């Protein structure tokens, strides 16, 4: 999950000077906030600071970020809306992403692995159809069920765009790519299989053919875990609504798991956070586990709780 | 799930004259809107029109309903906030609920079964702690993890209040009670087991000891199905994020299932809706299934799509 965020005072200090989108597009600053959790906590992975909607903007839909989340200048509802979208060349439309990766890589000098990411086609389709975030994805699902062909055309373009976006990050030095199909868990399994799985699989195969591991995240994944396992992802990143032991039992021994502490637990106390981290480590078993949260860290998280989460596995390893 | 709702023109016509809470508290009108889906569609169950927060108001927290959902006059955050809550006597504090049931029963004259409902303790606790609805239940979880004893005291009072609320509905003539632990699926399974399961089990046992079946609903239940099965509910009402065939395989043959079509499918076309109903019937298998949606019907649902959903099982039975 994202490591930089509104909970760190050094991040907030920068955001007082620049807005969210400017920060994404200014490599020196994006690299600085990407590195902040490495400098403060000594985490072993650095995640580049960016946003999953960056490629959507490169496809031709301007985006703004307000207090109520992302806002798209127009939403996709018709075939003409899909036809007008470009499959962007990352080098000319999103050069700041590759540059951020290069700056991070240089500054890290091997201290931590460098992780890039991309939104998955279905999740980006949901944002483009809704024109922003949504509570129940009513517009998205209405279109999926009433005009599946139109949705497949949109998903096809998004798969090409995100696969190229991921490949460009790898070419710039990203050592693994996390694919966020965050909202695919809102679909019934049959719709997940038709509208999410084939498209994120295309992106994941592009990542793996470039020689780096792919991590697939779906929020609310308990009903579609076996389908996630068919994506060819190296790591499945799961949310907290299922235990890691059950997830392991259902997907078998050959795929790694990432997760899955409820980020809301980091709103309690450092001791309680450490307990939750230990419980996740125990439930995950001895091998193939990346300790992480089950979704993004919440803005009001006390820094001491984030610190406790990072330190817990070190304690567990020593003891 | 709720049958009456904003999608029916005859319901909207009444709501133009009275606000939501007045409608809940006026038995003649509440009975009228309860009966509307029976009159229009010929559904085989009539669900009384009310709201899960009615007992919370009876406990001493005034509630209002605006465009952005329910709003509580104050939220529960301290021991004093819990201590001041009453365990209400339903006959004196919520007489309109029993009266609505009696009016429905008389008007139905056996044409359809009559279903009462109550919010479950955890879900009502979440509303009282948040002071309304929530996107991620950050305040609720923060309190659960930092002061579990306080939360248990709150849940204990809510369990007593909702058990009595359910018993009063049965005494008035409800033939089954649905227990809505709508937001318990947002908890990690260990927290569900500690804060949701024991309290809704108390309510369910009270319902069953009064001689009627209990239906337990949890939204996003795929990770906690086995825990739901331990509640002693006669029927588990599941959302669409898991297939009914997988749910059946996991809970065994002895508990009935209810659900689980995605309400957003009713935003498409009558033909597509009928396909979804058939698919649910097929996935549920031959026995122990109540065809239903996986959550409440959405406000913009075309009446023709609701009709198609109600008619589909009749067609399936004939063919």
Which secondary structure elements does this structure contain, and how are they paired or packed?
Two copies of one chain form a homodimer.
Chain A: H1 9-15, H2 20-24, H3 27-41, E1 45-47, H4 54-59, E2 63-66, E3 69-72, H5 79-83, H6 90-93, H7 95-108, E4 113-119, H8 121-130, H9 138-146, H10 148-172, E5 176-180, H11 189-209, E6 214-217, H12 225-229, E7 235-237, H13 244-251, E8 256-261, H14 270-284, E9 289-293, H15 303-318
Parallel strand pairs in A: 1-4, 4-5, 5-6, 6-7, 7-8, 8-9
Antiparallel strand pairs in A: 2-3
Helix pairs in contact in A: 3-7, 7-10, 8-9, 8-10, 9-10, 10-11, 14-15
Task: State the gist of this model.
With 319 residues, the first copy, chain A, is α/β, with parallel strands linked by helices.
How would you describe this structure in keywords?
homodimer; 319 residues; alpha/beta; TIM Barrel; 7-stranded parallel beta sheet; two-stranded antiparallel ribbon; 9 strands; globular
């Amino acid at each position: 999950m994202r490591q930089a965020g509104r909970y760190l005072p050094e991040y907030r200090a920068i955001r007082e000077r620049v807005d969210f989108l400017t920060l994404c597009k200014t490599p020196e600053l994006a690299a600085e906030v990407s590195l902040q959790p490495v400098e403060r906590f000594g985490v072993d992975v650095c995640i580049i600071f960016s946003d999953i909607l960056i490629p959507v903007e490169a496809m031709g839909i301007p985006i703004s970020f307000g207090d109520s989340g992302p806002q798209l200048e127009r939403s996709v509802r018709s075939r003409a809306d899909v036809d007008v979208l470009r499959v962007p060349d990352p080098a000319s439309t999103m050069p700041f992403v590759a540059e951020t990766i290069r700056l991070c890589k240089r500054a890290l000098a091997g201290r931590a692995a460098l992780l890039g990411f991309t939104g998955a086609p279905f999740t980006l389709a949901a944002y483009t159809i809704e024109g922003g975030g949504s509570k129940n994805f009513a517009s998205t699902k209405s279109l999926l069920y009433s005009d599946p062909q139109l949705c497949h055309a949109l998903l096809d373009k998004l798969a090409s765009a995100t696969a190229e976006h991921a490949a460009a990050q790898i070419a710039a030095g990203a050592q693994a790519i996390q694919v966020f199909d965050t909202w695919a868990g809102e679909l019934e399994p049959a719709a997940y299989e038709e509208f999410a799985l084939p498209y994120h699989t295309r992106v994941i195969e592009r990542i793996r053919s470039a020689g780096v591991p792919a991590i697939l995240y779906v929020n609310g994944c308990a009903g579609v875990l076996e389908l996630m396992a068919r994506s060819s992802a190296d790591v499945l990143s799961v949310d907290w609504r299922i235990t890691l032991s059950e997830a392991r039992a259902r997907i078998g021994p050959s795929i790694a798991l990432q997760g899955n502490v409820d980020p809301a637990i980091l709103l309690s106390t450092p001791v309680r956070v450490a307990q939750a981290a230990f419980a996740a480590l125990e439930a995950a078993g001895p091998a193939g586990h990346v300790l992480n949260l089950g979704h993004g860290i919440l803005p009001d998280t006390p820094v001491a709780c984030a610190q406790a989460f990072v330190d817990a596995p070190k304690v567990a390893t020593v003891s």
